[in-house]
Design a protein that fits this description.
Number of domains: 1
Number of helices: 2
Largest sheet: 28 strands, mixed
CATH superfamily: TonB-dependent receptor, beta-barrel domain
CATH class: Mainly Beta
CATH architecture: Beta Barrel
Structural class: mainly beta
Number of strands: 41
Helix content: under 10%
Radius of gyration: 26 Å
Length: about 775
């Protein structure tokens, strides 16, 4: 896994101190704030947003909110503090493919490449280890066009640069969010509170920063108990009940929604220490400690009522004159999660601006504690709230270690025609996941008999190089290549209760890959740059996809130790014009992916649970256009505007597998990739104190299944179109205090991505700066 490298604040060599031309050879120019670690010399599409824009224009409660209005991006965030499903989507990578993007913060990998997407286990980036108020800027590179990154960069590479002080500064912030929510039989109001504080200073050669953050959040219900109307048996057996909502499911078939579940109440604590020491004017060492704790409770509620008006949570029930299967813990699951994750990052950087510079980075991410308890079987509310049988899943000890060394050679100095970057990397991942029955009290008792025990390791070793070659006036060519060796080992799957029992130690696997890259830019006119880029990306299976079989009362994940690596060729052609007070860009992009790695979740009505299966999909082809425009002081002084629109045609071309019948996926659209998506953000600075903004986000309808059988997007497990408008106002009360107020989804669009997204939400925050 490539470790991005960030030039810390105040650590800018003299050769880079002067501002570069705004457009030159397709090089991205970052103005203000810290430098990005992304390879700005590679002429590929990059977009970014800085701290001031985020604070003025975005109702940001989590770090992923900073990406909200960037072109072609979507984070599947379901509520404030969403820690297990907030997956990043890009041009040709959907919200089920978290392993097709890379997220870094200050050179430390936040992408959770232990797995891909969500299912029995979930693997979103570790967004919680960066808070919005510590972000200095965030930048995105679209596509696998730099040899410095592995095949997980096929979708996008995101780089967060966080604050490092140059003098004494201190900050405190308090925020509040309220969301009235109505859906099916739920009519409630959910709230979230956030408080944070940070302090930092630079004294001589030492810089330091300490920050703390607490989030108390209530999310809306995310899953629902159901019964297919066709599964009812005519007759009078079962308890007659009312309160169920009869609607069409995502496949268009009538079903009864009989209750809600996975309504999280979560408390998250974040603590971070950052240190930097300048040994000289050209050599700096950094250290980062991140600590994140999450205590969450997921609760269900029954919509069913008997003749006396009391809730019904167990036994067979009668709806519309038909009898349905007894209610169980799969319908009304309770969960209690306790997570403590620790992150360490160390870096040393030499930056002289001379003939040779180098840098080394290492990071460790450790699931110090990671347990999830859940009720099981016939143990349903209200009894389940106080005890009874269940399960406990323990992922403690899971994590990863990443190391990267990089050198930069300038044979003729910075003004010479060649700048050669090269490096070595090793990334190691370990998964350990033990699920056990708890026969007594699922809330507090120790683990009992083993239900499943899975784990394993993967390792990726890489060598890479690329040359920024200015071979003629107005031209730049960047060829590169990446050589990788991937090893999967120590894999095992043990499921004693299976029929027959599973007790397998998987053999070691080893594969190698070569990924060439090339990018070219031409300064066609003084204000127009033409760019082209192509790159191969090989995305190897994650350890969870290979070995992570899990089974709980309401969810099952089926692994495959024989998965093939995913191989993609991606290309883009761009024209970018400097408008003086802004930039306009038009990009054609294409991607051809073979053996695409996919997790597909389908509902098993017999077992009454969601079953996720990982598989290779033969070939997916994508072509599209992306238009983006941004400007400052547009039409009127103080008006800043950013807008983008993306069209993508992403289709399954080949696939030996199927969902129900052979060939049923051929010609179908890739899941979670809409044909159209667009965003717009306009902010206006009325004076030195007041600013307001309006943002809009649009997506056309999508499919979630490989055979596109989920024809109804506006339903549980469906993926719908949406159009959402957001508002924000910020006022500086004095030179120390700033208040902000906002509304997300002001038009109260009720939209879905398997789970329901938030409805209209109201924000208020107060910030103090020393």
């Amino acid at each position: 896994m490539a470790l991005a490298v960030v030039v810390p604040a105040g650590f800018v060599p003299a050769s880079q101190a002067q501002e570069a031309p705004r457009k030159s050879l397709g090089v991205v120019t970052i103005t203000g704030g810290q430098s990005t670690s992304l390879p700005t010399q590679v002429p590929a599409t990059m977009e970014g947003v800085d701290r001031e824009q985020i604070e003025r224009s975005v109702n940001a409660t989590d770090s992923e909110d900073a990406l909200r209005y960037l072109p072609s991006l979507l984070v599947r965030k379901r509520y404030v503090g969403d820690y297990n499903h907030a997956i990043l989507s890009s041009r040709a990578s959907g919200t089920g493919n978290s392993a097709r993007s890379l997220v870094y913060a200050d050179g430390i990998l936040l992408s959770n490449l232990l797995g891909n997407g969500v299912g029995g286990l979930s693997f979103p980036p570790r967004w919680g280890l960066v808070t919005p108020e510590e972000i200095d800027r965030v930048d995105v590179m679209y596509g696998p066009f730099s040899a410095a990154y592995p095949g997980n960069s096929a979708g996008a590479v995101v780089d967060y640069v966080t604050r490092m002080p140059t003098k004494l500064e201190a900050h405190a912030k308090a925020g509040y969010v309220v969301q009235p929510f109505e859906l099916y039989g739920t009519d409630a109001t959910y709230r979230a509170w956030q408080t944070s504080a940070s302090i930092g200073n630079k004294s001589g050669d030492l810089s330091w920063w300490v920050s703390v953050n607490r989030t108390d959040s209530e999310g809306q219900p995310l899953t629902f108990a159901t019964r297919l109307a066709s599964a009812g048996t005519p007759g009078g057996a079962g308890v007659p009940v009312t309160g169920a909502a009869l609607v069409n499911n995502s496949a268009g078939a009538p079903w009864y929604v009989i209750g809600s579940a996975t309504q999280y109440a979560t408390r998250q604590d974040h603590f971070k220490v950052k240190l930097a020491y300048d040994f000289s004017g050209t050599l700096r060492a950094t250290y980062t400690l991140g600590w994140w704790r999450n205590e969450s409770a997921g609760n269900p509620a029954s919509y069913l009522r008997n003749a006396a008006g009391a809730p019904v949570t167990s036994g067979a029930v009668s709806l519309g004159g038909a009898t349905f299967a007894p209610l169980t813990g799969a319908d009304f699951p309770l969960t209690r999660e306790s997570l403590t994750h620790v992150m360490h990052g160390v870096g040393v950087k030499s930056r002289t601006g001379g003939e040779f510079d180098w840098e080394a980075n290492a990071s460790l991410y450790d699931y110090q504690r990671d347990t999830k308890r859940q009720n099981a079987g016939a143990n349903v509310p209200p009894a389940a709230f106080t005890g009874g049988p269940g399960t406990v899943a323990d992922g403690s000890g899971t994590g990863w270690i990443a190391f990267a060394w990089r050198g930069t050679w300038r044979p003729q100095g910075e003004k010479g025609p060649h700048i050669v970057d090269f490096g070595v990397q090793q990334d190691s991942y370990r998964l350990a996941y033990l699920t056990s029955a708890v026969p007594g009290n699922w809330l507090v008792d120790a683990a009992g008999p083993v239900a499943s025990d899975t784990g394993g390791r993967t390792r990726l070793r890489s060598l890479w190089a690329q040359d920024v070659w200015s071979f003629a006036p107005g031209w730049k060519f960047v060829p590169g290549a990446r050589v990788e060796q991937w090893t999967a080992y120590s894999g095992f799957t043990r499921i004693p209760g299976a029929a027959p029992a599973v007790n397998t130690d998987w053999p070691q696997r080893r594969e190698s890959a070569l990924s060439p890259k090339a990018a070219l830019s031409w300064q066609w006119k003084p204000d127009v740059v033409l760019k082209g880029a192509v790159g191969r990306a090989v995305r190897f299976p994650t350890v969870a996809e290979l070995y992570g079989a899990t089974s709980t009362v309401n969810a099952q994940f089926i692994n495959d130790p024989n998965l093939r690596p995913e191989r993609s060729w991606t290309g883009e052609l761009s024209a970018e014009k400097d408008l003086g007070n802004g930039t306009a860009r038009l990009t054609f992009f294409t991607e051809d992916t073979r053996d695409a790695l996919y997790n597909q979740t389908l509902f098993d009505p017999v077992a009454n649970r969601n079953v996720s299966r990982v598989q290779n999909v033969g070939r997916i082809g994508t072509q599209g256009l992306e238009a983006a425009w941004s400007g400052n002081d547009v039409w009127a002084r103080g008006l800043d505007l950013n807008a983008s629109a993306t069209y993508a045609n992403s289709v399954i071309k080949e696939n030996a597998g199927f969902v129900t019948t052979p060939g049923d996926t051929i010609g179908k659209r890739q899941p979670n990739i809409p044909r159209w998506r667009a965003s717009m953000l306009a902010s206006f600075r009325w004076n030195e104190r007041w600013s307001t903004s309006i943002g809009a986000r649009y997506s056309s309808r999508q499919f979630r299944t490989l055979d596109n059988s989920d024809v109804n997007g506006f339903a549980y497990m469906g993926v719908s179109r949406f159009f959402v408008v957001d508002l924000r106002a910020q006022v500086k009360l004095d030179r120390h205090l700033t208040a902000a107020f906002g509304i997300d989804n002001v038009n109260n669009d009720k939209y879905w991505n398997f789970h329901p997204y938030p409805q209209r939400s109201y924000f208020a925050e107060l910030k103090a700066d020393l």
